[in-house]
Specification:
Number of strands: 15
Low-confidence stretches: none
CATH topology of the largest domain: Rossmann fold
Number of helices: 18
Distance between the termini: 55 Å
Strand order of the largest sheet: 3-2-1-12-13-7
Number of domains: 2
Shape: elongated
Largest sheet: 6 strands, parallel
CATH superfamily of the largest domain: HUPs
Radius of gyration: 26 Å
Mean pLDDT: 94
RNA sequence: GGCGGAGUAGCUCAGCGGUAGAGCAGCGGAAUCAUAAUCCGUAGGUCGGGGGUUCGAAUCCCUCCUCCGCUACCA
């Protein structure tokens, strides 16, 4: 028996100077659905998320809160942990950049880059904004302020630089060898064209604040944001111990899921750091889009930030998960609209999926003594529906392999539609008197189809799908994809079933 | 300014050389097992404008317009 194929998926680490919002929830949700899918598909999965806790803004916010930075980050990091419970995220590890394991990894990576001659000491000068934690060039300023409107001051400081300029060609060659390194393809084009335009060396240390990881052998400097933050993906695997079982199993990462705003750091800087350190770059970076709220850009000043707690509280967890993953092709921007949410809840979930299960399970409860019916010989229509059900896993697997989460759901719902059409065509309620044997066959075929739908929807709507599997009396140990298909674990006739209960209630406008 | 993407039915989009498609909305009908859910039928849109290639273009080429992303630059 061969070892299960590994799958390592990560969210970005979230900056603690912000409360969890729909963007964080969305990124983590996508990773969660992928991680759940891969686990059910028999792969050995590691799903990492965490928090980014260093930097001047955090230092300042802590001071304002009257706390030392560590206490402060302990508190705010907790809010991101709570998001995991709120949305039933199945992360295997949660990393914080203030942890010892991370500091050790970052300093080791730094030393390695120094040893290999990729880091040198220089001087950094420019217009600096504390608020943005960013330097601007003279030409970027607008009326003496940052493009963001933040005040700036002229700052000169000694700084260590990473020789990014030396990595233009190696990166371009790397991209050429890995045309799927960045998805969606349009983002890949942006990255390649950015690198083609030339790269300048990257400032990787600061002396203007203390809250960070000290530069080894030069404690006046603190390691600057990206070299610190990006390293989390390997520090969580125990870097620099690259010979450990953990590291060897899961690195290189299969997938970094990110928002499109941090694409450059993940698709240019990160592989450059790793190539320079002699570590293999990740296999893929997927940049997803942004949500607007009822057509409006989301911002704190507009006061239209979407709180995940509110979403889950209002619409329900499975409903929220389904909407976010189904409404918008993964990778594109999307618009969050109450009306659209209600349509998805009532049509896709309640009417199509929930009602399919309910009508079938009710008929079984009433006409088959509440037990999985015994099928007779299968007719062509039965074989056709079952064939569709059996073909679903490979199709969904292909969609998931390219992070087409919306497409995966679409495929599942195509089977839901087939099953509803089959119910109408076979009209088991009419067979009840005319041909009870045939009715039992039809209901068994439907129950078996619903089992496939429930198992395959488990990564997306885990709560409802589990409840549906309960109603089909599917044992816990049979809740994985190897149980699908004719060679899997079809429903055994005679198995007693619990009383059916709706899994997706309709939305009632208050 | 450069690079890339997009402009197709009311809305969201697929199609990417061979007589215009899906979902949603709308309209008409059937059914009644079910969460008043389901199923069937119904889309007459110059495929952004113009020009070209081709037996034939939404689909290739040129050009113009509009929108979006990335990037650069300017006194």
């Amino acid at each position: 028996m061969s070892a299960p194929e590994a799958f390592y998926v990560t969210t970005p680490i979230y900056y603690v100077n912000d409360s969890p919002h729909i963007g964080h929830a969305y990124t983590t949700l996508a990773c969660d659905a992928l991680a759940r899918f891969m686990r059910l598909d028999g792969r050995r999965v590691r799903f990492l998320t965490g928090t980014d806790e260093h930097g001047q803004k955090v230092e300042k916010a802590a001071r304002e809160a009257g706390l030392d930075p560590q206490r402060f980050t302990d508190q705010v990091s907790q809010r991101f942990r709570e998001l995991l419970a709120l949305m039933d995220f199945s992360a295997d590890d949660f990393i914080r950049t203030t942890e010892a394991r991370h500091k050790r990894a970052v300093q080791a990576l730094w030393r390695r880059l120094v040893e290999r001659g990729h880091i040198y000491l220089g001087k950094y000068a420019g217009w600096y904004s504390v608020r943005d934690e960013s330097y601007y060039t003279e030409s970027e300023l607008v009326d003496g302020r940052a493009p963001t409107g933040a005040p700036v001051e002229w700052v000169e400081e000694p700084s260590y630089f990473f020789r990014l300029s030396a990595w233009q060609q190696p990166l371009l060659e790397f991209y050429a060898r890995h045309p799927d390194f960045v998805l969606p393809p349009s983002r890949f084009n942006e990255v390649v064209s950015f690198v083609r335009g030339g790269l300048t060396d990257l400032s990787v240390s600061r002396t203007t604040f203390r809250w960070g990881i000290p530069v080894p052998d030069d404690p006046e400097h603190v390691i600057y944001v990206w070299l610190d933050a990006l390293t989390n993906y390997i520090s969580a695997l125990g870097y620099p111990d690259t010979e450990s079982e953990l590291f060897r199993t899961f690195w290189p990462a299969d997938l970094h899921v990110i928002g499109k705003d941090i694409l450059r750091f993940h698709a240019v800087y990160w592989p450059a750091f790793l190539l320079a350190a002699g570590v293999e770059p990740p296999r893929r970076v997927f940049a997803h889009g942004w949500w607007t709220n009822e057509g409006q850009k989301i911002s704190k000043s507009l006061g239209n930030v979407i709180d995940p707690h509110a979403l889950v509280g209002t619409y329900g967890l499975d409903q929220t998960r389904y909407f976010l993953l189904r409404e918008v092709p993964f990778g594109q921007d999307g618009d969050f609209r109450h009306e659209a949410m209600v349509r998805r809840i009532n049509h896709d979930l309640a009417n199509d999926y929930g009602n399919l299960a309910q009508r079938v399970l009710s008929m079984i409860a009433r006409n088959c003594e509440g037990r999985v019916p015994q099928p007779g010989p299968l007719a062509a229509a039965d074989e056709a529906l079952l064939a569709r059900a059996h073909a679903l896993l490979p199709a969904v697997r292909d969609a998931m392999a390219e992070q087409a989460l919306h497409r995966a759901l679409e495929l599942i719902w195509e089977l839901v539609g087939e099953a509803n059409r089959y119910v109408d065509a076979q009209a088991p309620w009419a067979l009840r008197k005319s041909d009870p044997g045939r009715m039992r066959t039809v209901l068994w075929v439907l129950a078996e189809t619903i089992r496939h739908i429930a198992l395959l929807s488990l990564p997306f709507v885990p709560g409802a799908a589990s409840r549906l599997l309960d109603q089909l009396a599917v044992a816990q140990e049979d809740r994985h994809f190897a149980a699908l298909g004719p060679a899997g674990r079809p429903l055994a006739p005679g198995t007693a079933l619990p009383a059916p209960r709706g899994v997706f209630p309709r939305w009632q406008e208050a």
